[in-house]
Amino acid sequence: MNKFGFAISQGRQLNFDEMKSDKADRLLEVEPSYKWCIGCGGCTASCSAAGFTDFNIRRIHTAFIRGQYDGLEEKLRRCMLCGKCLLVCPRGVNTRSLIINMRRLLHD
Ligand code: SF4
Ligand code: SF4
Predict the structure, then answer these.
(1) Whether residue 43 has its Cβ less than 6 Å from ligand 1
(2) Span 86-97, pLDDT tens digits
(3) pLDDT the model gives residue 1
(4) Which atom belonging to ligand 2 lies closest to the Cα atom of 96?
(5) Is 89 in the pocket of ligand 1 (CB under 6 A)?
(6) Global confidence as pTM
(7) Of the options 1.10.600.10, 3.40.630.30, 1.10.10.10, 1.10.1060.10, the CATH number for the domain spanning 22-107
(8) Residue with the larger pLDDT of the pair 84 and 13
(9) Mind spelling out the 3-state secondary structure of the chain?
(10) What's the whole-number mean pLDDT along residues 67-85?
């Protein structure tokens, strides 16, 4: 039991040598606009699905690009492809295409 009013979190360092990048490279090839993403979270804030579930599109595309694919397929199914995230992205990332291509690449 922690009595100090704070908790010690697990380390979240990334080991770039261990990161899988094959699918990430292919995603950037088919949807190069993702290179402009600044991780602002605007897509998540506007997402139709996020209001009803714990669906978080920013976390999903960040995990995908890092090669952390566990559970992503199931999470991506919650996206309705409504395109709201695409309208608000300040960097012009084609998030809808990003999602469609992440779904496709997870099967490859
Ligand atoms: S709104 Fe655009 S720039 Fe911001 S995290 Fe989403 S995809 Fe990236
Ligand atoms: S396209 Fe998907 S991720 Fe984007 S706002 Fe709609 S439900 Fe959310």
Answers:
(1) yes
(2) 999 999 999 999
(3) 55
(4) 1
(5) yes
(6) 0.86
(7) 1.10.1060.10
(8) 84
(9) CCCCCCCCCCCCCCCCCCCCCHHHHHHHHHCHHHHHCCCCCHHHHHCCCCCCCCCCHHHHHHHHHCCCCCCHHHHHCCCCCCCHHHHHCCCCCCHHHHHHHHHHHHHC
(10) 93
Radius of gyration of the chain (CA): 15
Q: What is the pLDDT of residue 3?
A: 65
Residue closest via CA to ligand 2's atom 2 equals 79
d(CA 57, CA 96): 10
Report the pocket of ligand 2 as residue ranges, CB < 6 Å. 46-49, 57, 79-85, 95-96, 99
* Residue with the larger pLDDT of the pair 73 and 53: 73
Ligand sitting nearest the alpha carbon of 40: 1
Which of 28, 38, 44 maximizes ligand 1 atoms within 8 Å of its Cβ, making it the mutation to test the pocket?
Answer: 38
